[in-house]
Amino acid sequence: MSECLFCKIAEKKIEAKFVYEDKEIVAFRDVNPVAPTHILVIPKVHIENILGIDGNLGEKMLQVIKKIVVSEKIEKGFRLVTNTGEHGGQTVYHLHWHILSGRHMGWPPG
Ligand code: AMP
To answer: I need a labelling partner for 38 at 20 to 30 A (CA). Which of 2, 95, 99, 100 fits?
Structure first.
């Protein structure tokens, strides 16, 4: 997916502040953070959203999220969000989990 922003980040064609990388997954800081800690976790393979997840990729992403929560020292509290589709508020159509922390999170979300 040559036109996909997050594919380009995963391929290092666009700069990002990476916090994690393995064979299948990368994580980097959101360029426009909405919380003191705001990290995006994405698969390297282009998948639009969680409906495209195959095999054990979902589990692997959650394991990576756990590692990042520990390395960022945000075990006290955080929120995981994956905005999906137009009604879900998704703006980049490459699967990503937002890890948000460092401030109180309201409910319900907007
Ligand atoms: P969503 O609206 O859920 O699809 O989230 C897309 C996220 O990508 C937003 O929080 C943006 O701030 C973030 N974003 C867009 N461009 C970049 C970029 N070049 N580097 C890091 N984060 C980005």
So the answer is: 2
Domain count, the chain: 1
Residue 1 has pLDDT above 60, yes or no: no
Q: Which of 91, 65, 89 is nearest to 78 (CA)?
A: 65
How far apart are the CA of 48 and the centre of ligand 1, in A?
Answer: 14
* C-alpha of residue 30 to centroid of ligand 1, in Å: 6
Q: Is residue 94 part of a domain?
A: yes
Among 79, 91, 98, the mutation site with the greatest number of ligand 1 atoms within 8 A of its Cβ is 91
Annotated catalytic residue 87 = no
CB neighbours of residue 96 within 10 Å: 23
For residues 46 and 24, is the Cβ–Cβ distance under 8 A?
A: no
Q: Report the pLDDT averaged over residues 27-56.
A: 97
